[in-house]
Amino acid sequence: MDFLGESQEVPEVNWISPCPSSTYANTIAIGASDGSVWVYTIDASDAGNPLQIVQSYFLHTGACTAGAWTPDGLLLATVSEDSSLYVWDVWGEASAKNLVGDNGQTVIAMTGVDQRFEVEGGLYSIAVDPKGAFVAVGGAAGAIRVVSLPRLAAQSQARSRGAGGKADPTTGGQIIAALQIGADSVETLNVTIASVSPPTTLLAAGSVDGSIVVYDATRRFAVRRHIAGAHEEHSVVKVEFVRNTWLLTSCGMDGVVRRWDIRGAGPTNPNAAATAAEAGLQKEWRGHRGDGEGGGVLGFVQGETGERIITAGDDGVALVYEA
């Protein structure tokens, strides 16, 4: 490996997310502790300027805690400790359709000023629907808000409100669900479309209290599975579905990686907490120190079919598991 370049615009980077669009290859977004958001394109052929700033945004007033691209890579959604959600028009596609707000940068700008959206204590997690229909954000006190996203492919008029104050649905920005999963912060969110007929959209949320809740978005976000103690009393750090399946992979500060099959029957009452067996626990992988000893799993990536999992541990160890 050869060193390519470096850039330092902020005191601390909280997250990095690559743009999924092949049109904008080698582009990443980062969120910083000072609330700023930056988009870079990496150009290895330009030795003098390999890290090129595409956009920078400064509307968050607290640390920017999480961010996610829409599946087409045209919009970038970010959240902050100040309980704000902004969806940025990175490439100008929304502006061309007159869908950008008065600030000239965002297609959605939501803050705690709107009490329907407010999450006291801040927002810390985010996930975008694979179809680009909505963005889910999670934060303190177990709160989740689900907000519709604009349809850039649709022909739409300028952002406006008609009779009765109803927004044009193509512009997005409507709160379509307000959920609560307990008293502790929602640390991680993920959305999948399970391949069944009809397709089922599932939203998984992992909490500091060690629980995982899975919602069925096709049934008005009804609780499909509540796994109390999914990682015992330790915080759930990340949840991620194996693409287009019912299989959910999770990791936590207990140092364990687990895989769940959400198709299981579960408890008779879907709102009741399920045991591991009822929740559909398929397999677990150990090796990190965990158990509150500074060896929790801080993150993982998995193959397209979930066949391999690579972890990063708080104990300074990365492990590769074969599923």
UniProtKB/TrEMBL annotation:
Q: What is the lineage of its organism?
A: Eukaryota, Fungi, Dikarya, Ascomycota, Pezizomycotina
Name-wise, this protein is: Uncharacterized protein
Repeat positions for WD: 57-90
Q: Which UniProt keywords apply?
A: Repeat, WD repeat
Tagged with keyword Repeat: yes
- The leader peptide range reads none
Tell me which InterPro entries the record gives.
Answer: WD40/YVTN_repeat-like_dom_sf (IPR015943), WD40_repeat_CS (IPR019775), WD40_repeat_dom_sf (IPR036322), WD40_rpt (IPR001680), WD_repeat_multifunction (IPR051179)
One short Pfam family name for this protein?
A: WD40
PROSITE patterns documented for this protein: WD_REPEATS_1, WD_REPEATS_2, WD_REPEATS_REGION
- The source organism is Cylindrodendrum hubeiense
What's the superkingdom here?
Eukaryota
